[in-house]
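Reopening this one. Same input as before:
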Amino acid sequence: MRQIPTTAWVKISKKKPSYPITPLLMEYLQHFQRAAPFTLQYSDLLDYQESFPLQDKSGEDTLWDWVVYPQRDWEELTRQLTKIYAYLKTPDTPDFTDHLYISRVEYCNFGNSKPFRVRVVNRYNDNHDYYYVKRADASRVYGLELEHILAPNRIDFLVQGETLIEEHITGIPGDVYLQKRRLRDEETHVRIAKEFVKFSERCFSKLLGDMRSYNYVVVVTQDFDMQQIRVRAIDFDQQSYEGRIEVYLPHFYEENRNMLELVWDVLEPATIRQYQKEERGLMARRLKSGWSRVDDLLYCMEQDTISTETRVESLREGLSRYHKDPIFLESRTMGQLTRQHLTSMVFKGA
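Same output, byte for byte:
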C-alpha cells in the first residue's frame, strides 16, 4: 500500500453483465448445501403494486423503496419468503416458521443486482433480521464462496434457478464510518487502519474487485476493555472480472481516500508490510484446511466464462508483471488466473 496521486484513482463506469450458473457450478452448490427447494423466484417479486421511498432516521434518502403487493398475493408471498428464511437459517427444520412473519419488502434500483431486501420479524420478541433476494450471478457466487472459505467470516447464501438468497451482513457502511463515527483515541485509529490493510490484502489475494467504501462495512464489537474492529466485504459482484490489477486494490479508489489517509497517518510502511504478511499467513492456514473445497470451486471457475477475453488477457499480463512469473501467461480463463494468483500470494508470500 503506497501513496498515489489523485490522477491514479480507479473508476468503474460500466455495469458488469450477469453470468449464468452453469450445471457444473450448480452441482458444486448442491454438494455443499448451497441449494434449497424453494419455488419463489426473483422475478416474482417484481410484480409489486406501489412503492414508497425509505428514509433513514435523519430524513435522508436510503436509495431503497418500500414495495407493496396486491393484498390477494401478499399472504402466499409472505409464506414463501418466510420459508426461504428458514431454509437459510435452519435448513434441517425449514417448516419451523410459526414464530416469524414478514413485515415488509424493500427494493433498490441502484447497482448491478437491483436487490430486494426482506425484513423478517420474530413474533415472540419483535427482534428482526434481513435477507436479500437477487438475480443469480456466477461471479457473485464465486465471490461469496471464496469469502466464506478464506476470510475470517462465514456467509449463508442459497441458489435456486435464477435466484440468489443472501444473508444480511451487519456493520457500519465504510462510506459513513469515518464521517459519522467518532474515533475515540489513537488506539482506535490504529485498529481500523490495521483492519483496512488486512481487508485490502484479502481482496487482492482473492481478486475481489470494486471495494469502494459503500461495498464494505466496518463491524465494531465491544470487548471488555476496548472495541474490536473488522472490515467485511458485502458486495461480490466484481469477482475476477476486470482486467486491471488496480481494480482489486481498495486503496486505488477515491471513495476510500479517508481510510487511506488514516492508514498513512498512523502506520509505518514496515508495519503495513507486517500486517499484510500476517493476513497471508492466516489465509494460508484456511486454504490448507479447506483445500478440497477450494480446489473444487476453482475447478468450476476454470471451466466457466465470467469475463471477456480482452479482460483475461489484460489481467494475465498484469499479474505476470506483478509476480515476475511468465506462468500467468499460460492462463486462458479468470478461474485459472485466480488459482495461480491466490496460491502465489498465499503460499509463496508475494
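So the earlier flakiness isn't reproducible anymore. For the record, The chain has two domains: 6-15+171-347, 23-167.
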